[in-house]
Amino acid sequence: MEENKIEDHVKNHGTKVKFMVSYGGKIQQKLQNHQLSYVGGDTKILSVDYSIKFLDIFQLKYQLPGEDLDALVTLINDEDVENMMFEYYRAQLNSTKPMKLRLFLFPYNRCEASNNG
Fold first, then answer.
1. What is the pLDDT of residues 47-99, one digit of tens each?
2. Which domain holds residue 70?
3. Which is it for the CA torsion 10, 11, 12, 18, positive or negative?
4. With 80 as the cut, is the pLDDT of residue 20 above it?
5. In the sheet where 36-49 sits, what is the strand order?
């Protein structure tokens, strides 16, 4: 019965599900009412196909210092993060200014991201 309702909803409203994705902030307790609240950071809307699998949601990539955007490196596991940090510190040693490593969050092909607001 419930499965029929879901199928009807998909037929009438399409196969996309919108998620509000927040990052870069913190979850903190409000002093007034002690409820938890997300503070700071950015929020984006991510529209995905309802049949998406867990690992299909997004890709995280970074730009190597001094490289163009066509040479982004994909982060898949802890070893990739260690390599990214190594590249950061290696570039920092050769720079007189503080380094900023640029990270990119990409939706996979079945996702579309948009700004919230």
1. 777 666 655 677 888 888 888 888 889 988 889 988 988 888 888 888 888 77
2. 52-110
3. positive
4. no
5. 16-29, 36-49, 111-115
Structural tokens at position 94? 């050769």
Q: Are residues 27 and 46 in the same domain?
A: yes
> DSSP label at 108?
-
Residue 79 is predicted with a pLDDT of 92
On whether the CB atoms of residues 111 and 58 are closer than 8 A, the answer is yes
Residues 63 and 96 in one domain: yes
Q: How many CA atoms lie within 13 A of 50 on its CB side?
A: 10
Q: Is residue 24's pLDDT more than 70?
A: yes
Residue 75: name the closest of 64, 89, 65 by CA: 64
Owner of token pair 């900023």: 100
